[in-house]
Amino acid sequence: MAFTLTSILDGTINQVHNRVDEMLEKVADSAIDGARGNSGAILAQFFQGFCDGSNEVGKHTPETFSIAIKVGADYAREALAEPTEGTILTVITDFSNELINLLKNKKIDFVRLLELGIQKAEESLQNTPNLLPILKKSGVVDSGAQGFVDLLNGIFYFINSGSIKDLKIQNFFLDESEKNSSEIHSNELKYNFCTECLINGDDIDRKKVREELMAFGDSLVIAGSKSKAKIHIHTNEPAKVFNYCSKYGIVSDQKTDDMSQQQASAGGQSLQKIAILTDSGADLPPESDSLNIHVVPVRYHFGNIGYIDKVSQSPQEFFQELKVNPIHPKTSQPTPGDFRRQYNYLSSHYKSVISIHLSKKLSGTLQSAHTASKRVPESRTTLIDSMTASVAQGLIVMYAAKLAKNRLSHDEITEKVHKIIPKTKVYLAIYDLTYPVRGGRLPKSVKVIADLLRIRPILTAKNGVIEKAGQLFGTKNLESKFARFIRKRLEVSKRYIIQIGHCNNHKGAELLKISIDDFKNIEKIYNIEMGCALGVHAGPGSISIGIQEIPND
User: Fold this and answer.
1) Rounded distance, CA 532 to CA 538, Å?
2) CB atoms closer than 10 angstroms to residue 366
3) pLDDT in tens, 46-71
4) Which of 257, 423, 440, 522 is the most buried (most CB within 10 A)?
């Protein structure tokens, strides 16, 4: 809910309208765009109804205001596939009904109307445990309902004693009520991913969308209008949800959160005091799931169709589309809003955050993280440039996560990560130069010459910049040739952890693994699929390898 209100603030802070209906249109639009979570989506639909109920109203009277609030309450209830009493929905309804009842007193003014309406909302809030057994068992009221009552009280306080001239804009942040909400439901997960997206279309049938999306999960909320709809659902298949929604218009603002990981953090199941955050430019093996690494996804677009890296499509699906789609995709770094949402959440459950990201010379991701961190002053966050990408970045992030799991201090982890970065190398063998040419990373003339001479380049990251490290001659047995190149860079006096990443080339990656696996000082080799961050430029068939020297201490 806090994020939804922040979106309204960001979308209206420089807006001045003399008419209520014009201002509420902007409020509703901003709320739909920025709605986060179940309560946030319900609140956004409430504002949409409040807006529609205020159509052609230049200045509200107590009567027109109460009627518009009633429309908002009805919209909020209609947004849910399965309305649950004892939540924010109940409080909104009770508040609305009370305003309508109060209209019987024709002489009532705005101040008294709100005062009595809020009293009813407070009573409704205190009654939520009697309507929802899990709240009663936990001894708390519904957090979303509490947030709505707090919003009403804030509005009432401002009407009584506020001054626009003296108004100071502050950032919203997660508080204890969010923690309580997570703890309440920690043992009830049927679906792992809190999934959201925005549909922009010409004639969105929200009722039909609701009926069909119910098969994908629960906690379904659909807010918006015929031209714009915000989807919120808990599901195990986010990609299928996004794909389905694309039938109704252009899908954007996709988001998916791993609720199992969030609830482990919120419920104290993790004893870590320090959170490790990265972006999906870091390619991580399945084994990293036990390290509690938080990831902000990179996004990419094939034309006007947007995707979340490793969520909207699997790596196999991404590279298959890269191969057949005539439109070459464009990647985009996570927005500051993506990072701010993560920093707000993590700062409410951890003492500090260490945020490790794609090289700033390769992507604007680190800058987005920096912008977001400045807007979360309550969080102690250290930003680190990995100076690399893909499998090498993944090794650095896993190294940091292991230190955090071993309960080293924030400063100790930061110091050790800075030391491990220059000891972590990445090499990329490109199978087909078509893709770096299509992406504008390589002149077409270079491809013509390389193909003629049957040369395949090997790239590396040096000082955060991708540059040539060598080349392979001949187009056959590339994996064996690449293995010989790598073995020459391994020293018998040192120990290594290696991670191989492939672009839809399982066989080639396995051949490379076999070719270097007998090097006696390799303690661990991971073999994984690469994501889009580096894969979009490498193309199908390419193979990368991250090599990390194990410190002696």
Assistant:
1) 9
2) 24
3) 999 999 999 999 999 999 999 999 99
4) 257
3-state secondary structure of 386: coil
| 3-state secondary structure (DSSP) of residue 233 | strand
In 2-51, DSSP assigns E strands to none
Of 182, 200, 215, the position where a domain reaches its end is 182
**DSSP secondary structure letter of residue 330:** E
Do 167 and 108 belong to one domain?
yes
Which tokens in the block code for residue 58? 């230049």
With CA atoms as reference, report the closest residue to 539 among 453, 456, 450, 445: 456
Give the domain range for residue 219. 188-267
Q: Could you tell me if residue 204 is inside a domain?
A: yes
- Classify residue 38: in a domain, yes or no: yes
Q: CA-to-CA distance for 65 and 364, rounded, in angstroms?
A: 45
Q: What is the pTM of this model?
A: 0.73
The answer to whether 460 touches 469, Cβ cutoff 8 Å, is yes
Distance, in Å, from the CA atom of 430 to the CA atom of 447, rounded to the nearest integer, reads: 11
Length in residues, the chain: 553
What does the pLDDT look like over 130-183, one tens digit per residue? 998 888 888 899 988 999 999 999 999 888 887 655 655 554 444 433 433 443
Assess contact for 29 and 22: CB atoms under 8 A: no
Rg (CA), the chain: 26
Measured distance CA(184)–CA(180) in Å, rounded: 6
